[in-house]
Write a structure and sequence with these properties.
- The chain is of the alpha/beta class.
- The chain folds into two domains: about 110 residues, Tetrapyrrole methylase, N-terminal domain (Cobalt-precorrin-4 Transmethylase, domain 1), CATH 3.40.1010.10; about 120 residues, Tetrapyrrole methylase, C-terminal domain (Methyltransferase, Cobalt-precorrin-4 Transmethylase, Domain 2), CATH 3.30.950.10.
- The chain has eight helices and ten strands.
- The strands form two sheets. A five-stranded parallel beta sheet has the order 3-2-4-1-5, sandwiched between helices.
- It binds S-adenosylmethionine.
- S-adenosylmethionine binds next to strand 10.
- S-adenosylmethionine (SAM) binds next to strand 10.
Length: about 260
């Protein structure tokens, strides 16, 4: 275990964030500017993210490749002492298909490090200027997807998750938006405002705020089939504005603001 930690890293699995290059982490920027080789999913990441790569860096598009084709490319570059960055959209831990990639790298005894990124749901909340955990209203965030070609376990069916009426961030579901709406409406009010977020952080970003009952119609009208995140949350409803957190409330004291602290005049 210790020897694994001290081996030098050869491959960085890097979160690219949702698309805006300014939302890359400092570490991701540094690695991109130093990399000899960058492998990236061109269907999920806009080319602007690659602007800081070296002019002589080798850029390998992966949208048209299988893992079986990608891995030998990575391994060959690593064995040639190249610094390899494998870019994934958003945060690699979410729907990034890195699980099997990490297993294969481990089998090939290639040390790697993961650099987190900002996920699409975080930029959605920022754009909508909403807190997804409003006190007394909603304190849980669910990140999920609907069953499609990738099967979701029965215990995680969308309708059963909707029963929590939490802030629900729905990835990878634009193709099945009618089914998603129907399952969500089993528990969320039909008139709850929901956000349909298309290509957040890309130059052609668009966001629609519509009642839940219009989620499918709006998505279909705008032909949204890819790179779309749905945000369903009580925090988007008007009543959310009346709620207030205890943390900065003058009636609430805590270790760093004992009761003697008087309100600013
Ligand atoms: C393969 S998953 C990757 C998710 C990514 N790892 C993340 O953390 O955002 C692709 C799905 O994520 C969502 N997504 C990723 N980037 C997005 C963006 N810029 N705008 C809207 N949705 C996005 C969409 O639901 C899309 O279908």
């Amino acid at each position: 275990m210790i020897s694994k930690l001290v081996r030098p890293v050869s491959v960085y699995i890097v979160g690219a964030g949702p698309g805006d290059p300014e939302l890359l982490t400092v570490k991701a920027q540094r690695l991109l500017s130093e990399a000899d080789v960058v492998l990236y999913a061109d269907s999920l990441i806009p080319p602007q993210v690659l602007e800081m790569t070296r002019p002589d860096a080798e850029i390998i598009h992966t949208a048209d490749k299988t893992l079986e084709q990608i891995l030998p490319l990575m391994i060959e570059r690593v064995r040639s002492q190249k610094l390899v960055v494998r870019l994934h959209s958003g945060d690699p831990s979410l729907y990034g298909a890195i699980h099997e990639q990490m297993q294969a790298l481990a089998t090939a005894q290639i040390p790697f490090e993961i650099v987190p990124g900002i996920s699409a749901f975080q930029l959605a909340a920022a754009r909508l200027q909403v807190e997804l955990t409003v006190p007394e209203l909603v304190q849980t965030i669910i990140l999920t997807r609907i069953s499609g070609r990738t099967h979701v376990p029965a215990t995680e069916e969308l309708a059963s998750l909707a029963a929590h009426q939490a802030s629900l961030c729905l990835y990878l579901s634009a193709h099945h938006v009618e089914k998603a709406q129907q399952q969500l409406m089993q528990h969320y009010p039909a008139d709850l405002p929901i956000a349909i977020c298309y290509r957040l952080g890309w130059p052609d970003e668009q966001i629609w705020l519509v009642p839940l009952e219009q989620m499918a119609a709006c998505s279909q009208q705008h032909q949204l089939t890819r790179t779309t995140l749905f945000l369903i949350s009580p925090a988007l409803a008007a009543e959310a504005t009346a709620q207030r957190s205890r943390l900065y409330n003058p009636d609430h004291n805590h270790l760093f603001r004992p009761s003697s602290a008087s309100p600013a005049s």
